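Preliminary data (for renewal application), coproporphyrinogen III complex.
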Amino acid sequence: MNDLFLKALKGESVSRPPVWMMRQAGRYLPEFMAIRDNYDFFTRCQTPELASEITVQPIRRFGMDAAILFSDILVIPQAMGIEVQMKPDFGPYLPNPIRSTTDVENIKVPDVNTELDYVMKAIEMTLEKLDGEVPLIGFAGAPWTILCYCVQGQGSKSFDQAKTFCFTHPKAAHMLLQKITDTTIAYLKAKVKAGVHSAQLFDSWGGMLSPVDYAEFSLPYIRQIVQALQHEAPVIVFAKGCWFALKELSQTGASALGVDWTCSAINARYLSGGQITLQGNLDPARLFSPPEKIRDMVNTMIREFGKDRYIVNLGHGILPTIPLENVSAFINAVKEYRE
Ligand code: CP3
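Predicted structure:
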């Protein structure tokens, strides 16, 4: 197996850093769009044949050093009995958002092996298709980010309703966060058992919180998840906009931390204590630059982060309108990197 990714997670020295892209299984790929034309979003997630096929598509085309299972962070609230729709050209929509203590009390912690059995089947099928070529990453949303959708009911620039709920009903908010945490721990453990080699937690909306509120509403739950998982598989925590929490996150037991493009390599190394593996952080919009410029930026990024304890990635998910040749330039620049 190409073990660059797992070596980087262990902090071992590598000939070049590994590379993959958040949201690499997605809409910038014509072969993804062909499947999307025929099946709605959750059908793609729930059909192991489709989910595994979509997962390996970017690997076949570009040869990244890790695959990430095609799914969504919102399968967790769905399994907890909350209706989640994916509306074309709109995004996630939850018709009955959580707004009261009673709403939270009515939420169940499901048996993930029955409710999310389709994910475990997709993992098994993906591993067969990958045939040991590259490791497979499983993922989940951090509890705070999941709460954002459960309460807001849809995407938002401010997640004002989610924050209002936390600040006016803190007890209920913590009860909800704990239920999401318990479900997520069971879910990620099941994924590891099904064969994923690593797990990434996406705290996409962590940066909505002040450092003090992050320490109350996000960090303790991330810590619980990492501690429950760290001895079973390496965990990556990507907390977007959370440079202020890199120190605390580096002490959770995570094997690596994701960094977005607003934090320089030198600051990220300093804030995270200089030991832990870092992952990131090219501005996804920079993939619109000409291929030559992308190659230069990749080389600069590797020099700044260092070749070891580093996983090349974007600072957030790839945008749907990025040209394929620019993706090739990004991946190949890493593969051709020599000290
Ligand atoms: O990284 C990968 O390639 C694996 C697949 C993956 C998807 N969603 C597929 C998807 C992953 C890792 C996610 C995680 C996810 N989902 C996050 C965290 C990462 C991030 O981007 O912050 C979040 C916040 C969600 C919730 C979500 N799902 C939103 C906000 C949307 C709509 C907006 C958008 O970016 O498209 C989705 C839909 C979604 N999830 C799509 C894909 C490929 C696009 C819709 C479609 O394919 O029809």
